[in-house]
Amino acid sequence: MAPEEERSLALDQVIRRVRILLEELYGSDGFHTWSDAAFIRVVEQQVVFLVLSGFHDDVVLNVRCYVVRDVERPDEALGHYLACCNSEQLFGGFSIDEDADVCFDYSLLGSAITEDSLHLAIEVVAHAAAGYAPEIIDRWGGVSSLEKLRIQMESQEGGSESDEDEPAN
Predict the structure, then answer these.
(1) Is there a smaller number of Cβ atoms within 10 Å at the N or the C end of the chain?
(2) Phi, psi of 160 (to 5 degrees)
(3) What whole-number percentage of the chain has pLDDT above 90?
């Protein structure tokens, strides 16, 4: 079997396992399928994305929350603030992407995913987003991920199309 086929088989197996674990943890209504290899879970006010992708002979599950979307004043001070926040994190870390969105990511190897590790990853990401979003919004502007989702849904209802794609790892 070619490496691409092995990776694809490994990815399919981990996707099935993650779906089963999500159903066991949260029930079938406790998460949404975003695409073949991505899921969404809303934890209180945080929108948490779970995206699976091939990685060598394994699979990586990236658990991400867009802590603040559309930061209005991204600057060096925000970069420094996020670096200081990262020094306080045991698991996961903050970043800012090309769209001026502040993200918090936590990654797991597919071969190591258990019910406990999956639940912990989702909770850590949601907790970090909830804890840091208010200060980031106050100091640098922007909106929460849930508010951004509401805005997008309202614009789709009004007839305009969203340009949002699957979250990248």
Answers:
(1) N
(2) -90, 155
(3) 73
